[in-house]
Amino acid sequence: MADVDKSRKETAGIPTVEDQLNAIGTGRFHYLLVLMVSLLAMGDGMEIIVVTLISSELRSQWNVSKIEVGGLASAIFVGVLVGSLFGGILADKFGRKVTVMIGGSIFIIGGISSAFAQSLVWLCVLRALLGIGLGTYLPPIICLFAELIPTNRRAFYQIVLTGLAWAVGEILVCVFALVLRKYYDGQEWWRVLLLVCATPSMLGMILFFIFSPESPHFLLTQGRDKEAEALLRSIAEDNGKSDKLLCGGKVCHVASDEGDEWSWFQLFSKDLFFITLAVCITWSICSFTYYGHTYIYPLILEERYNMPFEDQYWAVMLAAAAEIPSVFIAVALVGIPELGRRLSMAALFGISAVIALTVPFFDDSVQFLVINMVLKGGINAAFCVQGLFAVEIFPTTHRASGTALGSTSARVAGIGAPVLLVLALGVSVDLTYLVISVLLLGGLAVAIAIPFDTFDKQ
Questions:
Q1: 370-401, pLDDT tens digit by residue?
Q2: I want to staple 165 with a disulfide (CB 3.0 to 4.6 A). Which of 41, 215, 385, 421 is the partner?
Q3: Side-chain half-sphere CA neighbours of 21 within 13 A
Q4: Of the candidates 128, 124, 123, which has an alpha carbon nearest to the alpha carbon of residue 83?
Q5: What is the phi/psi pair of residue 261, to 5°?
Q6: How far apart are CA 389 and CA 348, in angstroms?
Q7: Is the pTM of this model over 0.85?
Q8: Does position 9 have pLDDT exceeding 80, yes or no?
Q9: Are 130 and 114 in contact (CB under 8 A)?
Q10: How far apart are CA 245 and CA 15, in angstroms?
Q11: How far apart are CA 458 and CA 455, in angstroms?
């Protein structure tokens, strides 16, 4: 303890990593970072929704049921569950960048291989492989991005990046599906679509390998202070703001007690248990309602209105487009000091729950499309705020592991969402939306129960 007190005195007055990043501000380095992470997030969005778009073709070609195709949609979440179990631990122990590279490579291999599957079983296996890659790289890429962005711009970049990139990915895959289905000669158009979906991730991973550094926060936790300081000087130089560095680019690092070794189980310690539980529950609810709605929506349109496949694609694309304004609504809400992250998340959960309850009462097809767009936008906004809150709430030493655990629990919910909602739809459309509404109300309750916020958290 005496050594720790001595270290604190020696580092008094020396800027933190956040102080240096805030002084540097955003610039060329961050714009390139946004580009590469956006490509990865866009590919993620395309891969998640593509099974929904090709499900009718698979049922026709391979003579499989809706429940079996629902199992295919769940396969990717099984893979993400497995990947998330290891991705966070690897990122906190060995670094964010190397873990992203490993996971990204598996993701791309699974995505490309899926296009050549010759049976539903093999397609499930390869989509699960893709999910393992996604689960491995998703927590560290979220953490790395948050740890390189100035705190005063973190909410904007984190929410806009995840929200817009996902929405653009969903819209693009719908457009490609429409074009390929109409103009591609033959019934194998869906294989080409799967190859197209892997392209943004390949480009993003190439850029990431060449240009992305390690997290300065991670370097400090490993005692690599000089590397962290050199990285901050490099970022300042790239942004043309070397003169903005404080104290010549030095950063403080307070040593922890020697006996206080890192352990994954510290997520369940007295200090972190409630944080971990709240993140897992809210993330699971976001995952179930978002992915569940994405999968079940075209099936509802087919059953309720006998809507042709092409029109279903347009409906899915419009629902994805509705996510774009919801992103900016989320950004505006979290920037209000009286609301912050926690109450913004609670408000969006509550509003979305009410909307979900009203959806079945709209009989006209146009009105039904519009209210589902509003619902999808509300769920997406809640998801964006929850993601920001989850990244900010954990300490650096356990940030990747905490977000990975949250992602793992969310994927468990994602595994069950397609199958459970198909079963609910077998009873009635009303029950389907009631399930979504009840879960969103659960998210509202948990968000309100959280006793603290991360607004302006350094």
A1: 999 999 999 999 998 998 888 888 887 788 78
A2: 41
A3: 21
A4: 128
A5: -80, 155
A6: 14
A7: no
A8: no
A9: yes
A10: 10
A11: 9
